[in-house]
Amino acid sequence: SDRLLASAQEVPHRCKDGRVLWGEVVSKPELNAQGEIVGYHGITREITKRMQAETKLKLFRALLDNSSDAIEVLDPVTLRFLDINAAGCRALDYTREELLSMSIYDIDTAYSAAPQKVLAQLRESGHALFETIHRRKDGSTFPVEVNTVSVELDRPYLLAITRDITKRKALEAAQQDVARHLQRIIDFSVLLSSANEAIAQMENEGDLLRTLCELAVHHVHLRLAWIGQPDNEGWFQTLAAAGAALGYLSGIRISTSVEHPEGQGPVGQCWRDQKPVYIFSISQNSHMIPWAQRAETFGMKAGAALPIFRGGKRWSVLVVYHSEENIFDADLQKILT
């Protein structure tokens, strides 16, 4: 029976000086002729160092699994996972067992494109810091920063500390959007100042109109700026234009009449209503249907039509096009109105 087999126990022993030593006691029952247990004999060996090592290992494992960053141990040749902490499993939504059967190539969408660059850094300095994209079990992705070091123990290892930088990237993107927005406001403000200066200095009307278009393209990085005026039959004629997308105007037809499809766009509406008209997305605006495909060909995605008055009466329309959608927000509209 089981009670007659040898058993092993780990037992602490307190020394006279207060130290605690651990011993492994292996004991076996001693039987008499009738098969009855009459005693035990055993062997005790000290295992204090082993117990201390196991305690440290458990502590190290607990620290790893309670880290907010993913910590991965990789084979430097195959890049297969040899170990990964709980945070790494949660981030990727795999079990530890699943990840131990996988490699970096299974979860990193960008690393396979340039592994030699990272490996070269590791060979040169033993360390590599880079950003990449990781893919979860459900196929969704997220940006990470990976800090990798080479470790030599019983064999070479790669230790990678991986941090999810989704929030950082979102913050950086928001800061860049704010910076671009402020720069646009500055650019348009400089444009208006330069336009006023040109109006004050130039006497030739043709030169002035052309200069206004060139200033608009230069200062606010427009694809096209043009000034149009309707003829006696209500069809707009180009008085001046500038920009990389000048070809857009070749053969274009725009009317002042709402009865024509060519008059239902921003230019015709601006002329009739005598106030600015903004197109936040040319491809999504139904009134731009006659010109949308042509505008896309020339890289124009948003536009504005601004009335020009002379002697208190409508005289022409300044039309501008930009390569970004939704550029003409409330702040820019205040400047342009």
Descriptive account of the structure:
The protein is built from ten helices and 13 strands. It folds into three domains: 2-52, 2-Layer Sandwich (Beta-Lactamase), CATH 3.30.450.20; 67-164, Beta-Lactamase (2-Layer Sandwich); 170-336, GAF domain (Beta-Lactamase). With 337 residues, the protein is of the alpha+beta class. A hairpin with a 6-residue loop joins strand 4 (70-74) and strand 5 (81-84). Residues 7-59 form the PAC domain. This is PAS domain protein.
Helix and strand arrangement:
Layout: E1 7-14, E2 20-31, E3 37-46, H1 48-65, E4 70-74, E5 81-84, H2 86-92, H3 96-99, H4 104-107, H5 115-125, E6 127-135, E7 141-152, E8 156-164, H6 166-201, H7 205-220, E9 224-230, E10 236-242, H8 266-273, E11 277-279, H9 289-297, E12 302-310, E13 313-322, H10 330-336
Helix content: 25-40%
Tally of alpha and pi helices = 10
What order do the SSEs take from the amino end to the carboxyl end, as H and E? EEEHEEHHHHEEEHHEEHEHEEH
Mean pLDDT: 86
How much of the residues is beta strand, in percent?
A: 25-35%
Largest sheet: 5 strands, antiparallel
Low-confidence stretches: none
Specify the CATH homologous superfamily of the largest domain.
GAF domain
Work out the number of β strands.
13
> Pairing-aware structural class of the strands and helices?
alpha+beta
Distance separating the two termini: 98 Å
Query: Domains counted in the coordinates: how many?
Result: 3
CATH class of the largest domain: Alpha Beta
